[in-house]
Specification:
The complex is a heterodimer of chains A (325) and B (380). By secondary structure, chain A is an alpha+beta fold. Chain A is built from eleven helices and nine strands. In chain B, 52% of the residues lie in helices and 14% in strands. Chain B is globular and about 65 Å long. With 380 residues, chain B is of the alpha+beta class. The chains are: A alpha+beta (325), B alpha+beta (380).
C-alpha cells in the first residue's frame, strides 16, 4: 500500500528492504557497532531524507529493537563535531522528572541524557545507576535513571532531541501503516452478513481515516528531516521535529482506534499481533510525552511566531539538495 | 526557467515590494477581502489579481506565451505561499485559474493560447459548471446535454453550486454527449461564454452573507467544435485532471491563508486554548507537508488522482479546526467592534462547507478505500 504519489522514491523502497533484515532476529536487535558495520552512518550521511524514514518506519512496522535511535543521535552529534567515546552509547530520554532508556546495552561506555527543549546532551559515565522498570511493552527492556544529571554538556550547538523526535515519529508512523495494512487485509476476508466487512462503507471510511492520518505522519516526518538537514540545530529544526513526533502520535492514535475497531475483539487478545503494535506505540508515545504534546507544540509555535514548516527558501534548498543526490 | 532556482530570494523580494507598494496594493486587498455580492466581488478580485499580475507577482510560473514571466507551477505555488502567509490572500479568482488552466493547456492548447493570457492576468474570470441539482456526489449521472446540430453543439440543462458564476465571463461545463446510461463515458467538456444567447445565471444567497455560488441555466446554447476541451465523450478525464489540481493547488493556496489567520490569533489563542491551538497547528502543518508533495508530483506529471483525496480531507480538517479556534477565541455571533468582524464571520461560516465542496468528504474516503487501500471490487 502506498500513501504517496507514484513519484521516484529516491531509493526508499530499496533501503527499506535492506534495513528490514536488521530487525529479523529475536533479542535486543543490532548494537551501535553492528549498525556501523551495516553502513547505517554512511546512509545517514549520504541519503538522510530516505534512509531515516526507511530505517525507523521499518523498525516500527516490525516492532524491532536495537540501538537505532542511539545511532541517529550519535550521527547528529558527530556531524556537529562533538567528541564521543568509541563503543556502545546508551540513551536516556528525559520524561517527567526522570529519564528512560529503551532497550539499552548492558554495559555502555557512556550515556547521553537528552533534554527536551534544550540544546546538547549530558554525557554521563557508563556506570551511571539505572534500574529496570516495568512498562506496557514487555518486549522492550526499559531502564530508569532518577536524579537530574550534573554532567558536562556535549554538542551545545546541536539539538539531539530532533533526532529522537524524528526517529520516534517515524516509528509510530511505521506502526500506524502496519496496523492499517493488517486491518485492511482482515476486512477483505472477514465475512459478516454474508459478505466481506470491507464492502461496508462504515468500515471503508474508518480505514480511509487511518490512511489519511498515516499519510500526514509520513509527510511531517519528512518535512522535519528536511528542516533538520537545512537548518541543523536551530529552534526551527527542533520545532519541526516536535511536530513530526506529534504527527507520529496522531497517526498511531487514529490507526489503533481504527485497527482495533475493524479487527474486533480478536485484536484485544495477546495472540494477535495488534497487541504488540499497541503496546510499542504506547511506550514510544510516552517517551515523547504525548499527553501534552499539543500544548507544547502550541507554546513552541507561538514562541517562534507560528512558523510554516518548509518555508519557501527551505523548500528551494531541499529541492536543490535532492537534485544533487 | 528553472522553477526552484527562481524561488530563492523570493521572500525577501516580496517583503520589500509589499512595503514599497502598500498604498497601491493594500486597498485592493482589503476590498477583495470584504464580503460582497457576487458580481461586485468578482470585480474586486479581478482588480486585485490584475494588480498583482501587472506588477510581476502573479505572472510568475506562467509560460511567456501566455503573458507570464516563465517558470512552472512550483514557482506559482511559492508565490501563492508568500502572498497567503504574509496576509495577502491570493485573489479567489486565481483558484479557478489553477483548476482550469492546466486542463486547458493539456486538452485544448488552441483555447489556452487564445484565452489564458486574459484569464491569468485577471482580465477575465471563469467558473466551472460541473454539479447539477440531481448530480452532486454522483457527478457521472449529470443530465445537461449537448446535441449535434450541423457543425455546432446545442446545450440544454442546468448547473448549480458553480463558484463565482454570477459575474464571471466564461464557464467550463461538463455535459452529456452520450446516452444517459453511458455514465462517465459519455461526457464532454465545453467552454461557454456567460453572455452567449441562452445562458442565464443567478447568484445563490448563502448563510455566510455572500453569493459564493450561482446556478446556471443553459437553453439552446450553441457552440462550435473549437470550444470542446479534449475529445468528445472524454470529458471525464478532463474533469478528473481539473479536480486533481483543484484538490491539490487549492489546498496549497488555502494552507498559506490559514497560516496567516492562525498567526494573527496566536498570542491570544495559544494561551487560552493551548491544546486546541496545538491541534489546529498540526492539522495545518499536515496539510502543508502533504500539499507540498502533491504539487511536486503534479508538476512532475506523476500525480495520482486518488492520492489527492488525502489532501482534500486534510484541507477540510484544517479549515474546520483553524476556524474553530478563531471563533472560540473571538466569537463571531455578535459584532465585536473589530474591523475584521464581517470577514471572520464569513470565513467561519464558509469553513463549514469544506467537507462538501470539491468532492464531499464521504466521496474522498470512498476513493481512498477503493483505490489507495485497494478495496474496490471486494465482493458485496
Amino acid at each position: 500500500m502506498r500513501l504517496s504519489h507514484p513519484v521516484d522514491d529516491g531509493g526508499y523502497a530499496e533501503i527499506r528492504e535492506s534495513v528490514e533484515h536488521l530487525f529479523d532476529g529475536e533479542g535486543e536487535g543490532p548494537s551501535l557497532s553492528e549498525l556501523d558495520d551495516f553502513g547505517i552512518f554512511d546512509m545517514f550521511e549520504a541519503v538522510p531524507d530516505v534512509a531515516v524514514p526507511a530505517l525507523f518506519e521499518a523498525q516500527g512496522a516490525q516492532l524491532g529493537t536495537g540501538a537505532t535511535i542511539e545511532a541517529f543521535v550519535v550521527h547528529g552529534l558527530r556531524a556537529a563535531g562533538a567528541k564521543l567515546p568509541p563503543g556502545e552509547i546508551g540513551l536516556l530520554l528525559e520524561v517527567g522528572d526522570g529519564a528512560l532508556g529503551l532497550a539499552p546495552r548492558s554495559a555502555p561506555v557512556a550515556w547521553l541524557r537528552i533534554r527536551p527543549g534544550r540544546p546538547g546532551a549530558f554525557l554521563l559515565p557508563g556506570d551511571t545507576p539505572v534500574a529496570p522498570v516495568a512498562s506496557i511493552d514487555p518486549a522492550v527492556s526499559v531502564e530508569k535513571a532518577d536524579a537530574a544529571a550534573d554532567a558536562p554538556v556535549i554538542g551545545a550547538d546541536t539539538r539531539p532531541e530532533c533526532h529522537v523526535h524524528i526517529a520516534i515519529g517515524a516509528q509510530l508512523t511505521g506502526i500506524a501503516e502496519r496496523i492499517l495494512t493488517v486491518a485492511r487485509d482482515h476486512a477483505r476476508i472477514r465475512e459478516q452478513f454474508g459478505r466481506p466487512i470491507a464492502s461496508f462503507q462504515a468500515v471503508q471510511h474508518l480505514l480511509a481515516d487511518a490512511a489519511v492520518a498515516t499519510a500526514a505522519g509520513q509527510g511531517l516526518v519528512r518535512a522535519a528531516l528536511a528542516e533538520l538537514r537545512v537548518s541543523g540545530g536551530s529552534e526551527r529544526a527542533a520545532f519541526a521535529a516536535l511536530v513530526g513526533a506529534g504527527a507520529g502520535v496522531r497517526a498511531f492514535t487514529v490507526a489503533t482506534r481504527v485497527g482495533l475497531q475493524v479487527l474486533g475483539a480478536v485484536a484485544y487478545t495477546t495472540e494477535h499481533e495488534f497487541a504488540g503494535y499497541f503496546r510499542r506505540g504506547q511506550l514510544l508515545a510516552h517517551v515523547v510525552s504525548a499527553a501534552d504534546i499539543d500544548e507544547r507544540i502550541a507554546a513552541a509555535a507561538c514562541t517562534a511566531g507560528v512558523p510554516e514548516i518548509l518555508p519557501v527558501d527551505t523548500w528551494h534548498r531541499v529541492a536543490e539538495g535532492r537534485s544533487a543526490l | 526557467m528553472d522553477s526552484t532556482a527562481s524561488t530563492a530570494g523570493l521572500a525577501g523580494e516580496w517583503k520589500e515590494w509589499a512595503a514599497g507598494n502598500a498604498e497601491r496594493i493594500v486597498p485592493l486587498r482589503d476590498a477583495a477581502l470584504t464580503p460582497m455580492p457576487s458580481a461586485e466581488d468578482i470585480e474586486s478580485q479581478k482588480a486585485y489579481q490584475a494588480a498583482l499580475f501587472d506588477t510581476g507577482w502573479l505572472s510568475r510560473g506562467w509560460a511567456v506565451e501566455f503573458g507570464g514571466s516563465g517558470g512552472d507551477a512550483i514557482l506559482r505555488a511559492a508565490v501563492y505561499d508568500l502572498l497567503g502567509q504574509s496576509g495577502f490572500p491570493v485573489p479567489t479568482t486565481v483558484n479557478v485559474v489553477e483548476v482550469l488552466a492546466p486542463a486547458l493547456t493539456k486538452y485544448a492548447p488552441h483555447l489556452a493560447a487564445r484565452y489564458l493570457p486574459k484569464l491569468i492576468s485577471g482580465r477575465e474570470a471563469w467558473c466551472q459548471g460541473f454539479s447539477e441539482p440531481d448530480a452532486g456526489s454522483d457527478l457521472a449521472s449529470l443530465r445537461t446535454k449537448a446535441v449535434r446540430d450541423g457543425d455546432e453543439w446545442v446545450i440544454n440543462g442546468q448547473k448549480t453550486w458553480s463558484t463565482r458564476a454570477f459575474g464571471s465571463d466564461r464557464c467550463v461545463v461538463l455535459v452529456r454527449t452520450g446516452t444517459q446510461e453511458s455514465r462517465h463515458r459519455g461526457l464532454s467538456m465545453m467552454l461557454v461564454d456567460m453572455d452567449a444567447p441562452g445562458v442565464s445565471v443567478h447568484p445563490i444567497d448563502e448563510m455566510s452573507g455572500t453569493q459564493h455560488f450561482g446556478e446556471i441555466f443553459l437553453e439552446d446554447v450553441r457552440i462550435g467544435d473549437d470550444r470542446v476541451i479534449g475529445e468528445i465523450d472524454q470529458g471525464w478525464a478532463v474533469a478528473q485532471h481539473a479536480l486533481q489540481w483543484e484538490r491539490g493547488m487549492f489546498g496549497w493556496i488555502r494552507q498559506a491563508i490559514l497560516f496567516s489567520i492562525l498567526r494573527r490569533l496566536a498570542a491570544e489563542a495559544s494561551i487560552r486554548r493551548p491544546a486546541q491551538f496545538g491541534a489546529a497547528y498540526q492539522d495545518l502543518a499536515a496539510l502543508r507537508a502533504r500539499s507540498f508533495a502533491t504539487i511536486e508530483a503534479l508538476v512532475a506529471g506523476a500525480s495520482s488522482g486518488p492520492q489527492v483525496s488525502i489532501d482534500k480531507l486534510l484541507l477540510s480538517q484544517a479549515e474546520r479546526s483553524v476556524q474553530d479556534i478563531v471563533v472560540a477565541t473571538l466569537p463571531v455571533a455578535v459584532d465585536d467592534g473589530r474591523e475584521d468582524w464581517t470577514e471572520r464571520l464569513h470565513d467561519y461560516v464558509h469553513s463549514r462547507t469544506a467537507t462538501i465542496y470539491g468532492g464531499s468528504a464521504e466521496i474522498q474516503r470512498t476513493i481512498i478505500a477503493d483505490q489507495v487501500l485497494e478495496l474496490r471490487g471486494v465482493r458485496s
